[in-house]
């Protein structure tokens, strides 16, 4: 029996899916987050502090819990995407997709012929998903190109019309940088307005919309606005913010002043 994708299970049940984001090389962290109630745990192979050798072990750790295993690919290379799917990823988040041509390439990389160009060799994918994975993979694999640049925003109608996409994933920090705006922390109003437009247009195309958020409050806002999947910060962000909040709570007005100190994304 084919294992279902919990993100799709959540969304089709009528609620927003919640995703966790792993940037640290730790199977234990990935496993803990998979048991924490998230619908998916994304291994960030683009900006994560680990190499390719760690990815499969981290996907195995996610699989030990209830969440579905997702990966943000380090690139748009179809061979890299295929390997990550073979390793058991159920969702592929593809960075900086800015044109219809790029969207078509990455979408086709996720599916076997005739729908796509993926090479046959699902190795661990079959172990995780079930014996019918090869025949039924297109029912569970989700393709999420990231709209995270002004060019991608301008081309979103073409990107969203690409066959095979499950949704689009907004990267607000890189989108802000591409607009010459401040990234990190509270979203500039111009980016908020642009995200609302992406949300409306993705739904008009019959697609889902996901967004990386600075924290749980921002994620709650976008969930209320109709986002289909929200991501409240990352493992490093949760650890740093949570640790600072505990110190501040314990020490009160004697807590160290953290103004201007580094933050985790």
Automatic annotation (TrEMBL):
- The HpcH/HpaI aldolase/citrate lyase domain sits at 21-239
Q: Give the family, as the similarity comment puts it.
A: Belongs to the HpcH/HpaI aldolase family.
Organism lineage: Bacteria, Bacillati, Actinomycetota, Actinomycetes, Propionibacteriales
Q: Identify one Gene Ontology CC term for this UniProt entry.
A: cytoplasm
Q: Which Gene3D superfamilies match?
A: Phosphoenolpyruvate-binding domains
Which keywords does this chain's UniProt record carry? Lyase, Metal-binding
Q: Which InterPro entries match?
A: Aldolase/citrate-lyase_domain, HpcH-HpaI_aldolase, Pyrv/PenolPyrv_kinase-like_dom, Pyrv_kinase-like_dom_sf
What is the protein's name according to its record? 4-hydroxy-2-oxoheptanedioate aldolase
Q: Which GO terms describe its molecular function?
A: aldehyde-lyase activity; metal ion binding
């Amino acid at each position: 029996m084919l294992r279902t994708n919990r993100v799709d299970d959540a969304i089709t049940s009528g609620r927003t899916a919640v995703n966790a984001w792993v940037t640290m090389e730790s199977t234990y962290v990935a496993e803990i987050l998979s048991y924490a109630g998230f619908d998916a745990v994304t291994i960030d192979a683009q900006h994560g502090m680990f190499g390719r050798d760690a990815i499969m072990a981290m996907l195995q750790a996610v699989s030990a819990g209830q969440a579905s295993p997702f990966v943000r690919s380090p690139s748009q290379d179809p061979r890299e995407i295929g390997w990550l799917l073979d390793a058991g990823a159920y969702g592929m988040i593809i960075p900086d997709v800015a044109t219809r041509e790029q969207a078509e390439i990455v979408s086709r990389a996720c599916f076997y012929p005739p729908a796509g160009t993926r090479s046959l060799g699902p190795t661990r994918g079959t172990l995780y998903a079930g014996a019918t994975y090869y025949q039924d993979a297109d029912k569970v694999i989700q393709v999420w190109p990231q709209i995270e640049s002004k060019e991608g925003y301008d081309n979103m109608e073409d990107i969203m019309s690409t066959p095979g996409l499950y949704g689009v994933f907004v990267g607000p920090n890189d989108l802000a940088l591409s607009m010459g705006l401040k990234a990190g922390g509270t979203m500039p109003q111009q980016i908020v307005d642009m995200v609302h437009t992406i949300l409306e247009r993705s739904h008009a195309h019959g697609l889902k919309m996901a967004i990386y958020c600075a924290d749980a409050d921002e994620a709650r806002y976008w969930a209320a606005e109709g986002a289909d999947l929200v991501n409240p910060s990352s493992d490093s962000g949760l650890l740093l913010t949570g640790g600072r909040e505990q110190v501040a709570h314990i020490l009160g007005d004697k807590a160290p002043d953290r103004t201007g100190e580094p933050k985790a994304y």
